[in-house]
Amino acid sequence: MTSLHLAQRTMSTFANLRQVAVLALVLGAALPAHALERVTLQLKHLHQFQFAGYYAALEKGYYRDAGLDVRILEGKDGNEPERNVIAGKAQFGVGSSSLLLARLAGKPVVVLGTIFQHSPYVLLVARRDGVKDLRSIMGKRVMIGSLTDELTQADELFAYLKKEGIPMSSMVRVDHSFDPQDLVSGKVDAYSAYITNEPYFLDRIGFAYDIYSPRAAGIDFYGDNLFTSESEIALHPERVRAFRAASMKGWAYAMSHQEEIADLIRAKYTTRHEREHLLYEARQMVPLVQPVLVELGYTNPDRWRHIADSYAELGMLPRNASFPGFLYRPETPLHQTWMFRAAVAACLVLLAAMAVHLWLLARERKRARETIRKGERRFRTMFEEAPMGIALIDSATGEFKDINPRYAQITGRSFDEVLRGSWADFVHPDDAECVAALAANGTAGLKMTTRLVRPDGSVVWIDMSVAAIETESHGHPHHLCMIEDVTEKKKSEALIWQQANFDSLTQLPNRRMFHDRLEIEIAKSRREGLRTAILFIDLDHFKEVNDTLGHHQGDVLLVEASERIRACVRVTDTVARLGGDEFTVILSGLDESARSDLIAAKILDAMQAPFELGQEQAFVSASIGITLFPDDADDVDDLLKHADQAMYAAKGAGRNRFSYFTPALQVAALNRMRLTNDLRGAIRANQLRVYFQPIVHLRTGRIHKAEALVRWQHPQRGLVSPVDFIALAESSGLIVDIGEWMFRESARWARRWRGEHHPDFQVSVNQSPLEFQREGQAYDRWFAHMHDIGLEGAALVVEITEGLLLDASAGVTDKLLQLRDAGIQVALDDFGTGYSSLSYLKKFDIDYLKIDRSFTRNLAPQSSDMALSEAIIVMAHKLGLRVVAEGVETAEQRDLLLAAGCDYGQGYLFARPMPAEEFDALLRSQRVLA
Predict the structure, then answer these.
(1) Is the model's pTM score more than 0.70?
(2) 399 DSSP assignment
(3) CA-to-CA distance for 823 and 825, rounded, in angstroms?
């Protein structure tokens, strides 16, 4: 056969093949479409933006277009994808770099593509002492991976710690809770986390921490990897290829449309995370996925070799282990038939086939050009759709050579406006050093936070990352600049700083800022040889304003008081609010103490003016304590302590005045502290004594009642008066135990005297406001004890002060009702000296009024005290109350009270307070005389 004939037959064969192909296409089009293949993708964690590409591929129909019906399952533990893929329950899974361990353990897993080019694993360490040192975690409690799940061990962190010389045996490992609150609460000091996830929670609450990444030590693992099994590839090669391609297309879409996919996740998958959390995760994923610089799904065998070597150093793999078949390599199917291969072989032999060869070369050139065009189009698409601003900048001139839309959007300008300008035109004037840094870096990279100014004058904060690149076409250095708008983050940080350092009500520095400024002023005064004065200011009678007008009006008063104080000092001085109604002032640079006198007097005068609170007026004064550096103390704590002592001295001297700290105040404070410490052991040491003072029925002159009074038999000081220790007992909380002891002693003697002297005998027990207002079921214990000893409620009278009735809360009312229901009577002590109101007597169950000794002391016919006492007696009787007059010391006082109708008298005329045994003897003598 001639060569011409062979060529003709070859061409005829091509024609026949083409006709067969056309017929196949026509028949294929006429057949019904195949049903979608059902496959399952197993995630390694719960739904979040970490798996955004798969949601996008499903939502946008990329899987459907590939002939696949994909079901996406959440993961309960990191090992679930590997188990389900090997068992055939899922065809595809998402796993970490530990898939390499599974492969070398004989499990037939194959990595189809890498999504995270860098692992998101980092180590978060609580910054508790201000020292940033990774070695500080040695000896501490840490959470690094799970203790039971080998696929959540964070192996790169183990390799990192080993490389840094920190053995795992030097730490106390705690099983991972995946709750960052354990780091905040101090349950652990270090915590393995995803850089995309946990920092969001910690930043929101303002928790201070340090981040340590294995990449800092050259340990660079892959993050999430899409994988399948060898059997899936062998049985369904086309399905594997289609699933991989659709997934990568979904990832490209997700990284370019982050807000849309965040909304999709919340709408169709989970609402566990806020939208801002998902977007934070998306932003943090960009440098890990690197969608602009690296083809999605790209995996580098050399990087896997690096990972294998890291595992070998941990003793988890043998050195130089090989892993053939671990990485997916799709093979191009051979579609040509044997007729085609014979024709090609014949054409290669024949010189006449040269034309076919040239045609093939032309086709390859066309295909190469198309591939390049598609690659450029894909790069341009990713460049333009990137969520961060990207620009190519001439390093020498600062001119822009190319930008993406997001860059123009961040700067607040159009494309043309940006390209016509230069980098220096947009930078905030105060951040001009970043322009010089850009030019000075040469070929080095640069990361910094700076500000840009928009055309409307607004300022936008940006995180900027600059990398030097070589461009042959331009002939001199250029920089690739990537920026991200972090203005909202900066505002949040500023708000957190404001809340941490300033009082939210008055906008004055709070306790923390005050301490910082005082440290600075002390250091300055020490250096310059000058004085610094600290004024400790407490508002007098502020509690009454809160109780009568409400906390809202109290807040208004505090704001006005802060403004008055600021108006009295220099601009350079610091006014702070420590809390409640306590303010402090730092007066710096004083060459004499007289300056602090003038300012303190000025503040006192400013407080004298009435405070306008809506329709009401309030009057408060101030008590000021003054201490000087370095005269009184040399450090912050002692200065504040001394200023506080001086302030209490001013209050004790009558309020509305200032007092300087003196050593005598320190001595008094030490005595109070020592006395309080002694008081703590007084009950256990049986040092308390109960004294009784008789209450006499004025008409008959007989003792019907007694008031129980506490005394303290101190082993060194002797008998201590209640005046000296009751206030200490109230401030320390010991008054509760003392009150309980007094009740039991009073109940014991009341039971005895009702049995031996008179069945209606009563004992009065005083209760301080702190005892009466405390939470809990205190009276339940009283009632139980009275039941145990067989004492009825009528044997006791509880004495309270008028101030308690100011707080008309449900708690006060309930306690009074408890006493009434138990038969215990109530006496209102010191009546007429407090905030007396007839509505109290009408509203509450009161049995006795006790006229204060300040009225009884000056009783005389026709005197105002006599008129007031008569009015109280008449009013009480009209309301069904009985009256006890305190402080009766003369027969004339007794006679005047008897004539006015007073029921009972109590005072030195009848007897002083005496021990229980003496009072018992007094009652016996009264019975003998009767």
Answers:
(1) no
(2) B
(3) 6
